[in-house]
Amino acid sequence: MREPGEAVGDVPPTGEPAAPPNGAQPEADEPDGTYVYGIVAADHPCRLDEMVGVGAEPGPVRRVAVEQIAAVVGVAPAKLRAKRRDLAAHHRLLTALAEQGTVLPMRFGVVAPDDEALRRQLRRDADRYLAALHEVAGTAEYNVKLLADEDAVVRRAAETDPAVLREREAADAGYEGRIRLGQAVASAVEEALSADAERIVATLAPLARRTAPAPATADTAINTSFLVADEQSERFRGAVDELARALRGDGEVRCTGPLPPYSFVPGDDGGDR
Amino acid sequence: MTVSSQTQSIDRAPHPSGLYDVLELILDKGLVIDVYVRVSLVGIELLTIDARIVIASVDTYLRFAERVNRLDLTQNKDSSTLPELVDDMTESGAHGKTKGALSGAAETVSDAFKRGRGEDDDDSSSRRSRTTRSRSRSRSKDEDES
């Protein structure tokens, strides 16, 4: 069952006294399990030589295979945290794997106790992973955000929304009056952004195989991911450009991709349970 | 890999500078399996806070009202004297610091980032990402002052 390159980065026995957390010492990254980057089919090329994994002293990136399925893994550093360096390494490695073939990307920070536990898992869920790989083959995720220009949206609400105009007309400078005005503005803003969201999804969803809401973050009024077939990607990008122009008054449309299909793996909110 | 409305350009090559734009996908999406020990990442859960919750608060209403009222001032008084303008600008600047109603969750993202970065070396990707953030910050500042 062992692959040729598999023994290279074997996990040393754990349970040794932890090294002092001194960034200058290589021992700071005392390995602690098997860090899993993603799952691929056995026929994925897996050219891993150039890949750099997580950790201050990243070990070799290798492949743990079971029949039709393989996981791309590395040594997990003992003190794994969501550091910029490691988030970037995770993402970069998966992007490279996705360029070579189809991959199911793991969330950042997934660590198996050891290779054997990982093999058991792969064996047990092989069919499910193969089906998921089949579903995302020949596609990429594109994430589309609208970074709202709040001032512009508020200004437009103040000038055009009937309820807001009514409250401004009333010019009640008391607490209640200001609350009513603010409430009217808030709902006008929300309405405007919902309309933008609908427009984005209505425009892009027909060009995508699947659509998944992405977590709300930052000042993103809208954050949605689309699973786009490779042969549709030109049209999809074109449609994004048009949306960006059309919605310029409300903010910046930002599209990131092609990405590994983070939002379209089994068990995810937007995916199949 | 970022298609922005400003440049209209499409950069085909994936680029680590896009990290900030996909942070929530890397941390909140992707495959997870039961037997796996998922590293506990303090503060990361904050990422999923629904920004819309932030919209519906009295505080927000008052802020919106204040902003609309300020529109009245700036539009009706075409003959603003210089001191008035300066006053308005400083006020706007302070408002920018207390952050807009829609950006409540933004700070949790960068906070998590800061926490996560910890004593980490400042490599080139962190510098790039910081540039992105400061660019967007200065953008909103410009809007405040216009």
Question: Can I get a quick summary?
Answer:
The complex is a heterodimer of chains A (273) and B (146). With 273 residues, chain A is an alpha+beta fold. Helices cover 38% and strands 23% of the residues of chain A.
Question: What's the layout of helices and strands?
Answer:
The complex is a heterodimer of chains A (273) and B (146).
Chain A (H helix, E strand, L loop, with lengths): L30 E11 L20 E5 L2 E9 L6 H17 L2 E3 L4 E3 L2 H22 L2 E10 L1 H11 L1 H9 L4 H30 L5 E4 L6 E10 L3 H14 L4 E9 L14
Antiparallel strand pairs in A: 1-3, 1-4, 1-5, 2-3, 6-8, 6-9, 7-8
Chain B lengths: L1 E3 L14 H10 L8 E2 L12 H5 L2 H19 L5 H16 L8 H12 L6 H22 L1
Helix pairs in contact in B: 4-6
Describe this structure in words.
The complex is a heterodimer of chains A (273) and B (146). Chain A has 273 residues and is α+β, with helices and mostly antiparallel strands. Chain A is 38% helix and 23% strand. In chain A, strands 1, 2, 3, 4 and 5 form a 5-stranded antiparallel beta sheet that branches. In chain A, strands 7-8-6-9 form a 4-stranded antiparallel beta sheet. In chain A, α5 packs antiparallel against α6. Chain A is elongated and about 70 Å long. Chain B has one domain. Chain B contains 6 helices and 2 strands; from the N terminus they run βαβααααα. Chain B has helices spanning 19-28, 51-55, 58-76, 82-97, 106-117, 124-145, and strands at residues 2-4, 37-38. Chain B is globular, with a radius of gyration of 20 Å. Chains A and B meet through β1, α1, β5, α2 and β6 of A and β1, α1, β2, α2 and α3 of B.
